[in-house]
Amino acid sequence: MKPIVSKDSIVYFGQECYTRLNSYLEKANHSQIGILVDSNTHELCLPLLMSKIEKEYDIEIIEIEAGEIYKNIETCSGIWNALSELGFDRKSLLINLGGGVVTDLGGFVACTYKRGINYINVPTSLLAMVDASVGGKTGVDLGNLKNMVGVISESEMVLVDTEYLGTLPVNQMCSGFAEMLKHGLIQDRQYWEKLSDLSQLELDDLDQMIYDSVVIKNNIVLKDPTEQNIRKYLNFGHTIGHAIESFYLTHPEKPTFLHGEAIAIGMIMEAFISSELLSVTQEDLQHISDVILATFPKIEIASKDYEKIMELLIHDKKNEKGIILFVLLNTIGEAKYNCQVSDELIIKAFEYYNSL
């Protein structure tokens, strides 16, 4: 597959990943190389990556705990201290091998350590391959508030090898699939329809679907790298989805949502709002709801929690001057940003979701 060139980075696919990686490592002559892993990717993914590195380098492995709850400044501090103790300087390289937590957090660590060292993302989850590792967004959560601290700064390269997906449980694959569905909803109706009927797809089609998703995201990012306008499209489903994810993250008696699972709920609710405020037809709303619920079984959201979840909307990064702003759909394949939505309509969206 042809590499996808972003503003300051290149996304490589398949076996070309390792040809490019080895060429880069040889030419760059970094003073030290670190590989950031979590407790899962250390065991399941690191052996494959190490087997692909052709020359002998002095490589330090830095491990963090797996899970969204460790995507915080405390984890960053531990990594910064480890890099410092290992003598990493500004000519060092950090390779982030993992899902969205590792690529987001690892990118942030690299961008801030000694005011910035080079880093490479090797995504190992579907979510990271199609979304988290591409586009230069790095960061960590602040308490239960998603991605509140971070910078936009692209990696040297992103290496997408679907062999790593063999290590993923089904729910993690579904989590990434939510972002692929989002790409179709905001930009490409034909792509959405292709994803809508997975019964017609072969496993070999996955590589092309991932590639198409990265193309959609990259085309948006190239036009608006710092999210001043159309890059906001990529947040469809995330205004409500992030609030749901944050709320459930801090209530141990409730189920914990993976990112994509929460975004799936957010997309249904924001599609409903789109049907009320914009031009999404009832037929398309039902189609969107059916497709998403075919992969993400419905979770009953207690009505007593509506307002508590809504209180978290004020922290959404698209907001301006205290006004909550949504990305909505004009129709499948066409989005609109900076949409104001009343509290009453948000509550109706919760009720719509629960009625399905």
Automatic annotation (TrEMBL):
Gene Ontology terms for molecular function: 3-dehydroquinate synthase activity
Protein name in UniProt: 3-dehydroquinate synthase
Gene that encodes it: aroB
Keyword Cytoplasm among record annotations: no
Protein's UniProt keywords contain Coiled coil: no
Domain (3-dehydroquinate synthase C-terminal): residue spans on this chain: 176-319
Protein species of origin: Aquimarina celericrescens
CDD domains from the UniProt entry: DHQS (cd08195)
Cited Gene3D superfamilies: 3.40.50.1970, Dehydroquinate synthase-like - alpha domain (1.20.1090.10)
InterPro entries reported in the protein's UniProt record: Dehydroquinate_synthase, DHQ_synth_AroB, DHQ_synth_fam, DHQS/DOIS_N, DHQS_C
EC assignment: 4.2.3.4
NCBIfam families listed in its UniProt record: aroB
Cross-referenced SUPFAM superfamilies: Dehydroquinate synthase-like
Pfam families documented for this protein: DHQ_synthase (PF01761), DHQS_C (PF24621)
PANTHER family (UniProt xref): 3-DEHYDROQUINATE SYNTHASE
Named cofactor requirement(s): NAD(+); Co(2+)
Function: Catalyzes the conversion of 3-deoxy-D-arabino-heptulosonate 7-phosphate (DAHP) to dehydroquinate (DHQ).
Keywords assigned by UniProt, alphabetized: Cobalt, Lyase, Metal-binding, NAD, Nucleotide-binding, Zinc
Residue span, 3-dehydroquinate synthase N-terminal domain: 62-173
